[in-house]
Design a protein that fits this description.
InterPro entries: SecG (IPR004692)
Number of helices: 4
Largest sheet: none
Keywords: Cell membrane, Membrane, Protein transport, Translocation, Transmembrane, Transmembrane helix, Transport
Order of helices and strands: HHHH
Subcellular location: Cell membrane
Function: Involved in protein export. Participates in an early event of protein translocation.
Structural class: mainly alpha
Pfam families: SecG (PF03840)
Protein backbone atom coordinates (compact mmCIF):
# COMPACT_ATOMS: atom_id res chain seq x y z
CA UNK A 1 0.00 0.00 0.00
CA UNK A 2 2.90 2.37 0.73
CA UNK A 3 4.38 1.74 -2.72
CA UNK A 4 1.04 2.58 -4.35
CA UNK A 5 0.85 5.82 -2.37
CA UNK A 6 4.40 6.64 -3.44
CA UNK A 7 3.51 6.13 -7.09
CA UNK A 8 0.43 8.33 -6.74
CA UNK A 9 2.51 11.00 -5.00
CA UNK A 10 5.03 10.92 -7.85
CA UNK A 11 2.26 11.32 -10.41
CA UNK A 12 0.83 14.21 -8.40
CA UNK A 13 4.18 16.00 -8.30
CA UNK A 14 4.65 15.55 -12.05
CA UNK A 15 1.12 16.82 -12.69
CA UNK A 16 1.75 19.88 -10.51
CA UNK A 17 5.02 20.69 -12.27
CA UNK A 18 3.42 20.16 -15.68
CA UNK A 19 0.51 22.38 -14.74
CA UNK A 20 2.88 25.12 -13.56
CA UNK A 21 4.83 24.92 -16.81
CA UNK A 22 1.72 24.98 -18.97
CA UNK A 23 0.27 27.97 -17.13
CA UNK A 24 3.50 29.94 -17.45
CA UNK A 25 3.76 29.25 -21.18
CA UNK A 26 0.20 30.34 -22.01
CA UNK A 27 -0.62 33.74 -23.45
CA UNK A 28 -2.60 35.85 -20.99
CA UNK A 29 -5.99 37.32 -21.79
CA UNK A 30 -4.92 40.68 -20.36
CA UNK A 31 -2.39 41.18 -23.13
CA UNK A 32 -5.15 41.24 -25.74
CA UNK A 33 -7.34 43.71 -23.85
CA UNK A 34 -4.99 46.62 -24.44
CA UNK A 35 -4.94 45.93 -28.14
CA UNK A 36 -8.74 45.71 -28.22
CA UNK A 37 -9.08 49.45 -27.66
CA UNK A 38 -7.43 50.45 -30.91
CA UNK A 39 -5.34 47.63 -32.21
CA UNK A 40 -6.48 44.98 -34.60
CA UNK A 41 -7.36 42.39 -32.00
CA UNK A 42 -9.35 39.35 -33.03
CA UNK A 43 -10.58 38.58 -29.50
CA UNK A 44 -13.44 40.33 -27.79
CA UNK A 45 -12.98 42.37 -24.65
CA UNK A 46 -15.47 40.76 -22.27
CA UNK A 47 -16.81 37.81 -24.25
CA UNK A 48 -15.44 34.39 -25.03
CA UNK A 49 -12.10 34.42 -26.75
CA UNK A 50 -12.70 31.56 -29.15
CA UNK A 51 -12.23 27.85 -28.83
CA UNK A 52 -9.77 26.32 -26.42
CA UNK A 53 -6.35 25.60 -27.85
CA UNK A 54 -3.95 22.78 -27.05
CA UNK A 55 -2.35 24.51 -24.07
CA UNK A 56 -5.63 25.23 -22.30
CA UNK A 57 -6.87 21.67 -22.90
CA UNK A 58 -3.58 20.23 -21.61
CA UNK A 59 -3.82 22.47 -18.54
CA UNK A 60 -7.34 21.22 -17.85
CA UNK A 61 -6.16 17.62 -18.20
CA UNK A 62 -3.26 18.22 -15.78
CA UNK A 63 -5.60 19.92 -13.31
CA UNK A 64 -7.97 16.95 -13.48
CA UNK A 65 -5.10 14.52 -12.94
CA UNK A 66 -3.85 16.60 -10.00
CA UNK A 67 -7.34 16.64 -8.47
CA UNK A 68 -7.79 12.87 -8.86
CA UNK A 69 -4.39 12.10 -7.33
CA UNK A 70 -5.12 14.46 -4.44
CA UNK A 71 -8.37 12.63 -3.72
CA UNK A 72 -6.60 9.27 -3.96
CA UNK A 73 -3.87 10.36 -1.54
CA UNK A 74 -6.48 11.70 0.87
CA UNK A 75 -8.35 8.39 0.75
CA UNK A 76 -5.17 6.34 1.25
CA UNK A 77 -4.00 8.59 4.07
CA UNK A 78 -7.31 8.30 5.89
CA UNK A 79 -7.76 4.53 5.56
CA UNK A 80 -6.22 2.53 8.39
CA UNK A 81 -6.13 -1.16 9.17
CA UNK A 82 -8.82 -2.26 11.64
CA UNK A 83 -6.28 -3.77 14.05
CA UNK A 84 -4.58 -0.45 14.79
CA UNK A 85 -6.07 1.26 17.82
CA UNK A 86 -5.54 4.58 19.43
CA UNK A 87 -2.17 5.60 20.79
CA UNK A 88 -3.80 6.27 24.14
CA UNK A 89 -5.20 2.73 24.28
CA UNK A 90 -1.79 1.16 23.75
CA UNK A 91 0.02 3.40 26.28
CA UNK A 92 0.86 1.79 29.64
CA UNK A 93 -1.17 2.91 32.62
CA UNK A 94 0.45 5.81 34.40
CA UNK A 95 1.83 4.92 37.81
CA UNK A 96 0.15 6.85 40.57
CA UNK A 97 2.56 9.32 42.06
CA UNK A 98 1.61 10.68 45.47
CA UNK A 99 1.28 14.43 45.50
CA UNK A 100 3.79 16.22 47.69
CA UNK A 101 2.51 19.41 49.28
CA UNK A 102 4.52 22.42 48.25
CA UNK A 103 6.48 24.29 50.89
CA UNK A 104 5.90 28.00 51.14
CA UNK A 105 8.54 30.08 49.41
CA UNK A 106 11.32 31.52 51.52
CA UNK A 107 10.48 35.02 52.61
CA UNK A 108 6.76 34.48 52.15
CA UNK A 109 6.20 35.58 55.75
CA UNK A 110 7.71 38.98 54.90
CA UNK A 111 4.93 39.76 52.39
CA UNK A 112 2.20 41.82 54.08
CA UNK A 113 -1.19 40.17 54.03
CA UNK A 114 -4.35 42.07 53.17
CA UNK A 115 -6.48 42.35 56.27
Amino acid sequence: MQAFAGIILGVQILAALGMIGLILVQHGKGADMGAAFGGGSSGSLFGASGSANFLSRATAAMATLFFVTTLALAYLGNSRPASVGSVLESAPAAASVPAVPAEPAKGADLIPANK
